[in-house]
């Protein structure tokens, strides 16, 4: 929660990109015990961040993204946990013109495979770059003159904003 407060204060002072790391979600065993400890802190910190930024009129200009680097297996493993799972994950976007309460995409009934409106990691990156005012198709030059494109693929997730 304190890191979320610090993030809000940094944004108020003009910092344009802030990362809040809230690790410890790698529950390969005893997931229920782990989540019982993690979820209240995340809920309190994240909701306070969004509420504070909204109350201060910052949410129109700030994109808040809550995500991990992958999803979790739909089925509990033998150690009462969940393992890494690339086919499906959940992300949360708020602010910067994102329509509140919208759900995009769907998985099968087991939560294992995307069956509607898949969103790729490159699409997430493209959306974040565009929101930051960075052209994701822009080509940059390395110090030795080699051209490098910011993103090779990806589309803005327009449905977030429409």
Structure in a nutshell:
The protein is of the alpha+beta class and 162 residues long.
Q: How would you explain this protein's 3D organization?
A:
- The protein is α+β, with helices and mostly antiparallel strands and 162 residues long.
- The chain has one domain.
- The strands form four sheets. The protein has a two-stranded antiparallel sheet. Strands 2-3 form a two-stranded antiparallel ribbon.
- Helix 1 runs parallel beside helix 2.
β content, as a range?
5-15%
Q: What count of domains describes the coordinates?
A: 1
- Category by helix and strand content: alpha+beta
The main β sheet shows up as: 2 strands, antiparallel
Major sheet strand order: 1-4
Number of beta strands:
8
SSE string, helix = H, strand = E? Answer: HHEEEEEEHEE
| Rg estimate, integer Å | 18 Å
N-end to C-end Cα span:
31 Å
Runs in which pLDDT lies below 50 for 5 or more consecutive residues are none
Residues in helix, %: 25-40%
Shape: globular
Q: How confident overall, as mean pLDDT? A: 95
What is the count of DSSP helices, taking H or I runs of 4+ residues?
A: 3
Topology:
Layout: H1 2-12, H2 31-55, E1 63-66, E2 71-72, E3 84-85, E4 92-95, E5 106-107, E6 114-116, H3 121-131, E7 139-141, E8 147-149
Antiparallel strand pairs: 1-4, 2-3, 5-6, 7-8
Features:
single chain; alpha+beta; two-stranded antiparallel ribbon; 3 helices; globular
């Amino acid at each position: 929660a304190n890191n979320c407060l610090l993030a809000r204060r940094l944004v108020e002072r003009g910092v344009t990109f802030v990362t809040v790391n809230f690790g410890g979600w790698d529950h390969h065993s005893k997931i229920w015990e782990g989540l019982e400890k993690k979820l209240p802190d995340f809920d309190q910190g994240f909701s306070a961040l969004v509420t504070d930024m909204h109350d201060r009129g910052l949410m129109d200009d700030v994109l808040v993204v809550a995500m991990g680097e992958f999803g979790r297996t739909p089925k509990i493993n033998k150690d009462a946990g969940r393992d890494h799972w690339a086919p499906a994950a959940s992300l949360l976007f708020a602010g910067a013109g994102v329509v509140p309460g919208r759900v995009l995409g769907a998985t099968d009934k087991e939560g294992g495979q995307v069956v509607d409106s898949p969103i790729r990691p490159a699409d997430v990156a493209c959306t974040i770059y565009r929101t930051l005012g960075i052209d994701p198709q822009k080509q940059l030059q390395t110090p030795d003159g080699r051209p490098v494109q910011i993103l090779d693929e990806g589309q803005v997730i327009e449905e977030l904003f429409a």
